[in-house]
């Protein structure tokens, strides 16, 4: 199905769905006893509750999993995760929120558990509903993708919103499904998974969540690019030499070795998180801010990416990775990768996009680094000091800064690199930046699919990386060992330099000293 067809279907669905923003809302967390639900999903729901987005007179939350525990046992399991570092909510709020949480135990492929779940949801809807409101059901699959098809079949057969049949159509009422990455392991598996879910739900009912799209600075990208006049003439191959999108962690797999070894750093980080950022950096201006117009442009830029060349890939595996008893002794799985993407279109022809991700490195950060070309006819002879760069620090310490050359204060005409700096904790003191999962769950309730991955977008992303991944899986490409706590393989820096990236020596962006006091 083409992007125009998705757009048509979604616009019609949007106009009907967007009416139902009030009324009975049932949020069902499947996999409620797992780590993702405890650490991310339930805390996000709690913070939405504290901010008034989940009114207790409308909302009920159901946990569902195979583990046989009581309501109170689930509440006790998640209680400690609700009051995290960023929470200023009193303990009374936790207690009131937990009253909204109920637990149902059952398997993921049998009718009995889902019939019981439907019965519990219906009891809540009957108690909350009247002819003036609509009922909404949001299913959050905090589960491994292998059980998505069976769970979706059970939802479709036993747990769909039945009140749509009784209430007038203009009151809305809906059922939506949120699925977590990974969406397959390659193009074929992703297409199979999409087909299996697509047979049960329409595309506007499916929310493929990538939490990077909920990050504050990622959501700022379209505003930066298209709401600021001075970026418009600069954002092209005439002025930009290269773009780096970087994800670095200073720890290894830490008990997740078995899971990670099945996927590797490209599937885990680059093919989804970094590629979504890549789309927002490189896409053309959408016709409007409607979700389908934005997603249409993301698909177009993905379809313009040229096949990845082996000589523009560096793979690494940190020393000690195979010591994990859950990792095979001869594992070929990369824990580090640098991949250069090239776009064949008028705006970006010849500009390398360097996507880099790794574990057990010397720092933890995620950032976008747009490096501009050298100044022609440089009369100050300051090329060695470094190029102009626009840097967007996604995490930690959200910031954006422009590196530029200025006169060194004093009597001599000498130059030095400095920056124009927007550090969020300085500029927006006292403002709590929401967690990504909070934004994205709220978007699903509001029927806003802008920050979710559409099926044709997912297909285009896998088309880019599947050939490379198959060569790695077949042992045709081997990762280079690198020391824990290093920058990664030296070949990666050499590849970046060969692509045109010029590293600035002697300049370090300094965190404002007051930041740690806030």
TrEMBL record:
Pathway it works in: Carbohydrate degradation; pentose phosphate pathway; D-ribulose 5-phosphate from D-glucose 6-phosphate (oxidative stage): step 1/3
Pfam families xrefs: G6PD_C, G6PD_N
Catalytically driven reaction(s): D-glucose 6-phosphate + NADP(+) = 6-phospho-D-glucono-1,5-lactone + NADPH + H(+)
InterPro entries attached to this UniProt entry: G6P_DH, G6P_DH_AS, G6P_DH_C, G6P_DH_NAD-bd, NAD(P)-bd_dom_sf
Compartments where found: Cytoplasm
Keywords on record: Carbohydrate metabolism, Cytoplasm, Glucose metabolism, NADP, Oxidoreductase
Lineage, uppermost ranks: Eukaryota, Viridiplantae, Streptophyta, Embryophyta, Tracheophyta
Organism superkingdom: Eukaryota
Region (Disordered): 476-495
Enzyme superclass (EC): oxidoreductase
Domain Glucose-6-phosphate dehydrogenase NAD-binding: 28-220
Record protein name field: Glucose-6-phosphate 1-dehydrogenase
An individual GO BP term: glucose metabolic process
EC number: 1.1.1.49
PANTHER family listed in its UniProt record: GLUCOSE-6-PHOSPHATE 1-DEHYDROGENASE (PTHR23429:SF0), GLUCOSE-6-PHOSPHATE 1-DEHYDROGENASE G6PD (PTHR23429)
Domain Glucose-6-phosphate dehydrogenase C-terminal: 222-501
GO molecular function annotations of the record: glucose-6-phosphate dehydrogenase activity; NADP binding
Similarity field: Belongs to the glucose-6-phosphate dehydrogenase family.
Main function: Catalyzes the rate-limiting step of the oxidative pentose-phosphate pathway, which represents a route for the dissimilation of carbohydrates besides glycolysis. The main function of this enzyme is to provide reducing power (NADPH) and pentose phosphates for fatty acid and nucleic acid synthesis which are involved in membrane synthesis and cell division.
Annotated GO CC locations: cytosol
């Amino acid at each position: 199905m083409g992007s125009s067809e998705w757009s048509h279907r979604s616009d019609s669905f949007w106009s009907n769905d967007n009416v139902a923003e009030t009324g009975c809302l049932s949020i069902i967390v499947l996999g409620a006893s797992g780590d993702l639900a405890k650490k991310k999903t339930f805390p996000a729901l709690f913070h939405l509750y504290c901010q008034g987005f989940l009114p207790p007179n409308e909302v009920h939350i159901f946990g569902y999993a195979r583990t046989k525990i009581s309501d109170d046992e689930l509440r006790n399991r998640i209680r400690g995760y609700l009051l995290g570092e960023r929470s200023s909510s009193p303990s009374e709020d936790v207690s009131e929120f937990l009253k909204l949480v109920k637990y149902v135990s059952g398997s993921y492929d049998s009718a009995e558990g889902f019939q019981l779940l439907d019965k519990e949801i219906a009891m809540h809807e009957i108690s909350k509903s009247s002819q003036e409101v609509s009922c909404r059901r949001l299913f959050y699959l905090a589960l491994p993708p292998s059980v998505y098809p069976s769970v979706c079949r059970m939802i479709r057969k036993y747990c769909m919103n039945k009140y749509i049949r009784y209430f007038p159509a203009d009151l809305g009422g809906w059922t939506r499904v949120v699925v977590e990455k990974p969406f397959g392991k390659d193009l074929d598996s992703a297409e199979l998974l999409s087909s299996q879910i697509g047979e049960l739900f329409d595309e506007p009912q499916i929310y493929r969540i990538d939490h990077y799209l909920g990050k504050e600075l990622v959501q700022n990208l379209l505003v930066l690019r298209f709401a600021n006049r001075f970026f418009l003439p600069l954002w092209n191959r005439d002025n930009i030499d290269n773009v780096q999108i970087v994800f670095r962690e200073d720890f290894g797999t830490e008990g997740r070795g078995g899971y990670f070894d099945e996927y590797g750093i490209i599937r885990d980080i680059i093919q989804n998180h970094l590629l979504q950022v890549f789309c927002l950096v490189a896409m053309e201006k959408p016709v409007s801010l409607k979700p389908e117009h934005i997603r249409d442009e993301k698909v177009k830029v993905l379809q313009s990416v040229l096949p990845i060349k082996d000589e523009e890939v560096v793979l690494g595996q940190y020393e000690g990775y195979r010591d994990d008893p859950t990792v095979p002794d001869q594992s070929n799985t990369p824990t580090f990768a640098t991949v250069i993407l090239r776009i064949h279109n008028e705006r970006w022809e010849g500009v390398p996009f360097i996507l880099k991700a790794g574990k057990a490195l010397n720092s933890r950060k995620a950032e976008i680094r747009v490096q501009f070309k050298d100044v022609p006819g440089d009369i100050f002879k300051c090329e060695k000091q470094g190029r102009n760069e626009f840097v967007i620090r996604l995490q930690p310490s959200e910031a954006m800064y422009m590196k530029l050359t200025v006169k060194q204060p004093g009597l001599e005409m000498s130059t030095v690199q400095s920056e124009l700096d927007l550090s969020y904790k300085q500029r927006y003191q006292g403002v709590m930046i929401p967690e990504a999962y909070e934004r994205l769950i709220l978007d699903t309730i509001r029927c806003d699919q802008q920050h979710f991955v559409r099926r044709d977008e997912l297909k285009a992303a896998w088309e880019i990386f599947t050939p490379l991944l198959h060569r790695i899986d077949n042992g045709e490409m081997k990762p280079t060992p690198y020391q824990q706590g290093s920058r990664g393989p030296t070949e990666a820096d050499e590849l970046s330099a060969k692509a045109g990236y010029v590293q600035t020596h002697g300049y370090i962006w300094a965190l404002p000293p007051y930041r740690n006091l806030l």
